[in-house]
Design goal:
Length: about 230
């Protein structure tokens, strides 16, 4: 598990007022809050660029951050995981708000870990039987110590035939990690091409209903901004 140091600052009273979050974002900061472990929440701000650099190319849900918090010239430290990131639904590169949750390195936490399926195109069911891959779960919920949270969980389906299914119960992980998903949930399967249900892409939906989709996105953006403001 990777641990990264990230600088942050306590927000001032002016930065906690209504609409202050928008001003913070325009100045290159993203508002955030730290909570958990039965302690009072701390409202902070982090530099957007530094946060993106620290998390770039990494699994955000599993990243341990050591926050160096500056307040009135003093430095405090908090060890946290990222609980939630609110993004602008129209421009996902714009961060609206971040929720951090405190952790103790010797206490188990719940985390979300992505599943990486290996050898999809080389699997027997695809290469020899002519089947197609159908994904179920894309991530697993696990319980373990923070230092034991894996970056990802890999599963090789090279020997999987058409008609076969991989369930949560088939996934083997380190004995220090407990999978919380129901054992019967489907992770991946190989099915006959005629059984595949193809979902429309966002671009196809936009072409069919441009006005409706655009309005929906703007409504989502306003709702997320209101939600972010409500935490201030």
């Amino acid at each position: 598990m990777i641990s990264i140091v990230l600088k942050s600052e306590i927000r001032t009273n002016d930065e906690l007022k209504k609409n202050a979050s928008r001003r913070l974002r325009s100045c290159g900061y993203v508002p955030a809050v730290i909570y958990g472990l039965n302690q009072e929440p701390i409202k902070i701000k982090v530099k957007t660029k530094e946060f993106k650099n620290a998390t770039k190319g990494r699994s955000i849900a599993n990243l341990i951050l050591n926050l160096d918090i500056v307040s009135n010239g003093k430095n405090n430290k908090e060890t946290v995981l990222i609980k939630e990131i609110q993004k602008d639904p129209i421009n996902l590169d714009n961060l609206l708000h971040i929720d951090f949750i405190r952790i103790q390195m010797q206490k188990e936490v719940e985390a979300t870990v992505p599943i990486h399926i290996l050898n999809e195109e080389d699997s027997i069911g695809v290469k020899e039987d002519g089947g197609v891959i159908q994904h179920g779960l894309r991530e697993l919920h696990v319980l373990c110590l923070p230092a034991d949270i894996p970056e990802s969980i890999n599963y090789d389906i090279k020997n999987l035939h058409m008609g076969q299914i991989v369930k949560v119960s088939d996934i083997v992980v380190n004995e220090k990690i407990k999978i919380l998903n129901h054992p019967e949930e489907v992770v991946v399967s190989i099915i006959h091409p005629t059984h595949l249900v193809v979902e429309k892409t966002e671009e196809e939906a936009l072409e069919e209903e441009p006005e409706l989709v655009t309005k929906s996105k703007h409504a989502d953006k306003e709702e997320k901004e209101k939600k972010a403001e409500s935490k201030e």
